[in-house]
Design a protein that fits this description.
The protein is of the alpha+beta class and 335 residues long. Helix content is 35%, strand content 10%. Among the domains are: 52 residues; 147 residues, no CATH class. The longest helix is centred in the middle third of the chain and has 29 residues. The radius of gyration is 62 Å and the shape is elongated. The N terminus and C terminus are likely disordered.
């Protein structure tokens, strides 16, 4: 046992006394804790040295021989340690390049100019023309609204001074009837009445009393939340049409007079069809009863409320006076 240890010490001294050659690699620093590296190196199988995916292979370094022996080898391995160099900074890839396995972000689309619309899309001369056209249209609209307002407004200083100009603007070609404000309220009650001459069953001709058709329309709409416009306005508008198209002698004013008379006669015959007169109607006669509206109780105004009548001549009933659905058995009356 002693002989082997002495030989190891001698061998270590002989190795440490010889100067290392110039081209000999420096021994690696000893492991911390004074652990003796193994003097013998075992060959690493080829399968272990193959690079694995995702792991960088270790750079091969020069092999350093270690001296044998416990004392000499420990002293040689535990020599002065070389300063550890700081790790090299990671190299950054140049701009525009990406590391393997990464995807480049999608490139942003180029800025596309927004197309102009409307007047801005026109050239300068057309923009000026469009602006002038819009200005003229605006001025015309304002003038038209002002003229119409002055026409329908109550009488005032402007309409008294420029009434002809306003009427010329509102009535350029034909007369128009634009009523914005309520007209003068009705101060009279007008009732349309009819008397009929019919052929009785014994062959004689009899006349009925005056039948108030306006009162019948009033009873039909009284208490009705949704009254019919026909019941409210048909007879009244027909009588106004007749009066406005005839003079005080009941002479018609051209074609309007003929149309108004035919219209009134057809309405009256349709109303009489709902009455059982006892025979076919041969002639009819109309009259209007006009009464002024009575003044309210709190007023001191004295108003004559007596009725005034306008009586029309007798009209012989013809087939043209019978609207659809109305039957007047005049053939039986002639037998």
């Amino acid at each position: 046992m002693d002989s082997y240890e002495d030989e190891d010490v001698k061998g270590a001294r002989s190795l440490s006394s010889e100067p290392p050659p110039d081209d000999a690699p420096e021994p690696p620093p000893a492991a911390q804790g004074g652990v003796r590296p193994s003097a013998r190196t075992e060959p690493v199988p080829a399968s272990r040295t193959e690079p694995q995916p995702g792991v960088l292979p270790a750079s091969p370094g020069p092999s350093v021989p270690y001296a044998q022996g416990s004392a000499g080898g420990t002293q040689a391995a535990c020599g002065p340690q070389a300063p550890i160099a700081p790790p090299a900074p990671a190299t950054q890839a140049p701009s525009g390049t990406f590391a393997p396995g990464t995807h480049a972000p999608p490139a942003s689309p180029p800025d596309v100019p927004v197309p102009l619309r409307g007047i801005a899309a026109l050239s300068l001369p057309y923009q000026v023309a469009a602006a002038l056209s819009l200005a003229l249209v605006g001025v015309f609209a304002c003038v038209h609204l002002a003229m119409v307002f002055l026409h329908v407004a109550p009488s005032n200083t402007v309409t008294k001074e420029h009434g002809e100009a306003v009427d010329g603007w509102v009535y350029p070609e034909f007369e128009q009837n634009w009523k914005l404000f309520a007209p003068n309220p009705l101060q009279q009650n007008v009732a349309v009445e009819v008397k009929a001459e019919y052929a009785a069953a014994d062959g004689s001709h009899k006349n009925t009393d005056w039948i108030d058709l306006t009162a019948e329309d009033g009873e039909a709409i009284r208490g009705n939340l949704l009254p019919s416009h026909v019941e409210q306005n048909e007879l009244r508008r027909a009588w106004d049409f007749y009066v406005n198209s005839h003079d005080n002698e009941n002479r018609g004013n051209g074609l309007r007079g003929q149309l108004s008379e035919s219209y009134v006669r057809r309405i009256v015959m349709r109303r009489l069809d709902a009455h059982d007169l006892g025979g076919p109607v041969e002639r009819i006669r109309l009259r209007s009863s006009t009464r002024s509206v009575k003044a309210p109780e709190w007023s001191d105004e004295k108003i004559d409320t007596r009725a005034s009548y306008r009586v029309l001549p007798w009209w012989t009933v013809t087939a043209a006076d019978l609207p659809g659905g109305v039957r007047n058995d005049r053939t039986e009356a002639g037998q």
